[in-house]
């Protein structure tokens, strides 16, 4: 297929592009800095897009069969008023601009798979969370709900739309795991804010396979939790990572330290969690290659 990917030069976007190219797809990437992106991956057909202020160029959509929308400002920053506006606009407004461009395309791509996050649900404590759970009330929950609504507006123009509520994608090269590795390798890692909160993790390879599985399934639409079937608490994650690295994992990080680093609002969100399970993927027959946390970490870290 010919597939358009937004956020194509980011952490997950670059991996999606590589996975699609490896199976023989033609990939069109949108980036604010296409020349820089082209240097990192010259096989992708790059186009410039300032996502929050304009539609994607028509030339980027010509002949496209499907779209994977992964654009979004990093959320792990202090939530100042300006940062909140950037976080929201880079998701909701950018996706609206994308759908406006898709509505004008002729012929039109058949499917849109759009990123969301488990933050959609808010802090749910120990309660089991699947795709039928309503969204929460925190800032990130509202952003996710608006982001998904913008993507689902493509249903009005006849496109199949799926959203992936992505959890904590484990990859030693980026994201949470990359941040955890330095202190844990020094024996200075441990549970955060008591460690009782659930962390809905997923191995990066399973996340990629899930996105492609949803993209390829002509009847797969609606919300899918992009998480492993066995969520773990932060304390369980800390212990498993310590065992894999052969290091103790007993140095706690208090909630106050999280608030000092990220600000009170995001610090409070990070001290919560979701016991999210991929009910719809499992019911649809998707098979996870890495359903258990410690073997997943060993696969990523022990080569």
Describe the 3D structure:
- With 303 residues, the protein is α/β, with parallel strands linked by helices.
- The chain has 12 helices and 13 strands.
- The protein has helices spanning 11-22, 34-40, 58-61, 81-104, 139-152, 175-185, 204-216, 234-245, 255-262, 264-270, 279-283, 293-301, and strands spanning 2-6, 26-31, 45-48, 66-69, 111-117, 128-129, 160-166, 168-170, 198-199, 201-203, 222-226, 232-233, 275-276.
- A 7-stranded parallel sheet has the order 3-2-1-4-5-7-11, with helices on both faces. Strands 6-13 form a two-stranded parallel sheet.
- Strand 4, helix 4 and strand 5 form a beta-alpha-beta unit.
- Helix 8 packs across helix 12 (293-301).
- The mean pLDDT is 94.
How far apart lie the N and C ends?
33 Å
Question: Portion of residues in helices?
Answer: 40-55%
Strand order across the largest sheet? 3-2-1-4-5-7-11
What sequence of helices (H) and strands (E) makes up the elements?
Answer: EHEHEHEHEEHEEHEEHEEHHHEHH
Strand and helix map with partners:
Blueprint: E1 2-6, H1 11-22, E2 26-31, H2 34-40, E3 45-48, H3 58-61, E4 66-69, H4 81-104, E5 111-117, E6 128-129, H5 139-152, E7 160-166, E8 168-170, H6 175-185, E9 198-199, E10 201-203, H7 204-216, E11 222-226, E12 232-233, H8 234-245, H9 255-262, H10 264-270, E13 275-276, H11 279-283, H12 293-301
Parallel strand pairs: 1-2, 1-4, 2-3, 4-5, 5-7, 6-13, 7-11, 8-10
Antiparallel strand pairs: 9-12
Helix pairs in contact: 4-5, 8-12, 9-10
């Amino acid at each position: 297929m010919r597939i358009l990917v937004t956020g194509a030069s980011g952490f997950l976007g670059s991996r999606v592009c590589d996975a699609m190219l490896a199976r023989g797809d033609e990939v069109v990437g949108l980036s604010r800095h296409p020349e820089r992106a082209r240097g990192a991956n010259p096989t992708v057909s790059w186009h410039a897009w300032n996502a929050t202020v304009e539609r994607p160029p028509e030339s980027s959509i010509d002949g496209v069969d499907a779209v994977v929308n992964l654009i979004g400002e990093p959320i792990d920053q202090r939530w100042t008023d300006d940062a909140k506006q950037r976080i929201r606009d880079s998701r909701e407004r950018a996706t609206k601009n994308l759908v406006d461009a898709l509505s004008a395309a002729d012929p039109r791509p058949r499917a849109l798979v759009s990123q969301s996050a488990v933050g959609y649900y808010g802090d749910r404590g120990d309660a089991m969370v699947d795709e039928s759970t309503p969204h929460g009330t925190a800032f990130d929950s509202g952003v996710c709900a608006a982001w998904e609504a913008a993507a689902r507006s493509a249903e009005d123009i006849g496109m199949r739309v799926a959203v992936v509520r992505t959890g904590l994608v484990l990859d030693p090269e980026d994201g949470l795991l990359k941040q955890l590795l330095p202190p844990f390798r020094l024996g200075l890692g441990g549970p955060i804010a008591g460690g009782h909160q659930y962390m809905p993790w997923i191995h990066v390879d399973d996340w990629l396979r899930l996105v492609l599985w949803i993209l390829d399934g002509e009847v797969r639409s609606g919300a899918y939790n992009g998480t492993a079937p066995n969520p773990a608490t932060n304390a369980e994650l800390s212990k498993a990572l310590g065992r894999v690295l052969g290091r103790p994992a007993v140095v706690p990080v208090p909630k106050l330290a999280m608030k000092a680093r990220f600000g009170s609002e995001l610090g409070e969100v990070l001290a919560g969690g979701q016991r999210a399970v991929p009910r719809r993927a499992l019911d649809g027959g998707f098979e996870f290659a890495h359903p258990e946390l410690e073997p997943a970490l060993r696969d990523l870290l022990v080569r």
